Amino acid sequence: MMTGDEYRASLDDGRETYFEGERIENVAAHPMLGQTVDSAAAGYDRFYDPAPDAVGAFMKVPGSATELREQVELHESVDLLTHVTYASIMTLLTAADRIEGTLPENARRIREYVKDAQRRDIRITQCITDAKGDRSRRPGNQDDPDQYVRVIERRDDGVVIRGAKLHISAASMGHELMTIPTKGMKPGEEDYSIACMVPVNAPGVKIINTTYAPRHEDTRDFPISGRHHTPEGFVIFDDVFVPTERVFLDGTPELAAVFAHSLGLWERLGGLAAMTRSYDALVGFAQLISEANGLDRVSHIREKISEMLINATLIRASLEAAIENCQVTSDGAAFPDELYTNAGKYHGAANWSLMVRHLHDIGGGSILTAPGVADLENGHVGDLARKYMGTMQSVDGLYRAKLFHAIRDYTADSFGGWNAVTNIQAGGGLYAQRLVSRLHYDMDRAKRTALETANMAEYADRV
Ligand SMILES: Cc1cc2nc3c(=O)[nH]c(=O)nc-3n(C[C@H](O)[C@H](O)[C@H](O)COP(=O)(O)OP(=O)(O)OC[C@H]3O[C@@H](n4cnc5c(N)ncnc54)[C@H](O)[C@@H]3O)c2cc1C
Questions:
Q1: Domains annotated on the chain, with CATH
Q2: Sign of CA dihedral 225, 226, 228, 231
Q3: Does the beta carbon of 428 sit less than 6 angstroms from any atom of ligand 1?
């Protein structure tokens, strides 16, 4: 396994990565992006085991509800890069099972790759979302055929791919890009039915980074995003050669969706688990700021917080149900329940803005205008600022201002905006979660129940 320092050094591999108009020579040494590398390096140190055949504890494939719960709890505390690596490995193993019958050689390549990736202790990011061009048209019908990643050349020893994958979390901080089709393909879309592993430093890979990380020198006013942030990568495959051993699917449209579907479950389980924590944090912020404002006993405030905590409880309940109702496959791997995972993730994403609305309603305007920590420390005005930010004997101005900074950072500033959009879009977007929920919901049971409720037993054949 690699230590944090070995991981940092491993990123200095000639990768072509850009930020704010400049090429970054060494991402680990960059003043802003390097902070994300530090978080990931801490993850390496946390799981480091010097034994020659050691594999990170975060990689464990759960075999029961208990082990699945342990993995979910562990992943609540790991950095995003470590988490997406785990989800990628689980995706690949899930997909290998699903394509085994039709493409046994490809399934073998996947399993070999996974062993090798675990041996090298690398980090993998997930390249699924294509540029997509005109959304109303199929990949093969675009004005520009490169809007979905495709094979432009097949050689004896591999393929050459072209296209772009957008919004890829931590793409510049990982070692390899798990590049898979964003959706199902149809006959005639063989070139778009490509799944493969691409090293970040492969010739032709170019990554443009964006991040919500605060640009301020004094990050004390950004107590959350000032400590941990993860950039998204705009990943361009400018004619990249991929050797055959790393090609997991090429030209079998009927299997193109297998990879994204395999990923979706793990991605949304991770999203749901993260959401249980975020929802509790929103409830906690609402309660703390209402107490600091002296309003925690006022009925309309209590009602809003009650609604918030009911939502938080339902999200946690769906995570519990997803774990408890897991299905264990014949080779002993536990998969969370699809319906509870997707319905819970959907509910959390769809109600995020309501939760934030209540918090903003309860908190007041200082969410945006509380003076910075440096101003509260200023020799001329700091005392007065703290005096007027304070509300009562037990609530000093610094404490209340810090709460406001945290709420602004989490919900109303750059990171807050990122949270708002990401909750809606990540994991395939609300539409994807609705679709999968519908697929797994027992509609016959619902129809039967409706007919029974209506005393219409004579129409039972409609089910
Ligand atoms: C912060 C962040 C991190 C992300 N991380 C990753 C990552 O690590 N890896 C990754 O692969 N992706 C990642 N994503 C991408 C995410 O999965 C996509 O944003 C999401 O799938 C939506 O795709 P899109 O952004 O292209 O939007 P669009 O596809 O343009 O969707 C916008 C809206 O149009 C609708 N729509 C689109 N096409 C159609 C159609 N044909 N018919 C009807 N309605 C349509 C959608 O349902 C949606 O409501 C991330 C996104 C964000 C915001």
A1: 4-56+121-251 (2.40.110.10), 258-447 (1.20.140.10)
A2: positive
A3: yes
